[in-house]
Amino acid sequence: MAQQAVAANGVSVRLACAAFRISETCYRYQPALCDENVEIADWLVKLTEEESDWGFGQCFHYLRNVENKGWNHKRVYRIYCELALNLRIKPRRRLNRQTPEPLKEPIKPDQIWSMDFMHDQLSDGRNFRLFNVIDDYRREGLAIEAGFSLPTMRVARVLDQLLEWRGKPTAIRCDNGPEFISHEFVSWAQKREIRIEYIQPGKPQQNAYIERANRTIRYSWLSKHLFDSLEEVQDYATKWLWFYNHRRPHKANGGKPPLMAA
């Protein structure tokens, strides 16, 4: 109001400040970090548009650990709220449930791999499956294989390809699906001296690492895009897996991508 009075009515700065009871220092104040705040806002808008499932934590960890920006989290969160980005997702009502048994945290790479299947549809209505494998140590994604049918021998072939460049794990954690309890798969694991850790039926929390990875895959890209062919699915999955391991922050790694974590 003081600035408007000076500009419109030709009132002196001293008189305007006295009339509105503010100091001349306040009147002449210019935010020193204005340009930097604009840069932060641009980054937040860009990230939330490209990755609509990311909240403030993921955005801040990406800026801090991937882009190496040294901005304070309080400052970034203030701008995040000023842009109303904290109101994008309606919070869901949570139900009270029993606390699942905690998983044993791996202490080195290739100690335990987790694997599971997902289902979705192409644009023409045909169903397809995804076979996902992760290393539990840093939640590193190892493979995403797409197919209309993924029988036991196809699963074994994907795992053999991983063993060629990765080395074998001590154990593999999976559910009790028909592909995993078959004689062919059990024989495959025994020949390679890999232990199979089956979870209890109806207890998906015992395979929580891969279940969380499945949720990330679902909401990050699988539910956002409609694919016309299986080749499109596999090509996108391969590119996204690289992004997941190299660029996407993960809270389990202190906000760093799996391959950037110590």
From TrEMBL:
One of its GO terms (molecular function) is nucleic acid binding. Pfam families: rve_3. It comes from the Bacteria. InterPro entries: Integrase_cat-core, RNaseH-like_sf, RNaseH_sf, Transpos_IS3. Residues 105-262 form the Integrase catalytic domain. Coiled coil: none annotated. One of its GO terms (biological process) is DNA integration. SUPFAM superfamilies: Ribonuclease H-like. Gene3D superfamilies: Ribonuclease H-like superfamily/Ribonuclease H (3.30.420.10). NCBIfam families: transpos_IS3. This is ISSod2, transposase OrfB. The lineage of its organism: Bacteria, Pseudomonadati, Pseudomonadota, Gammaproteobacteria, Oceanospirillales.
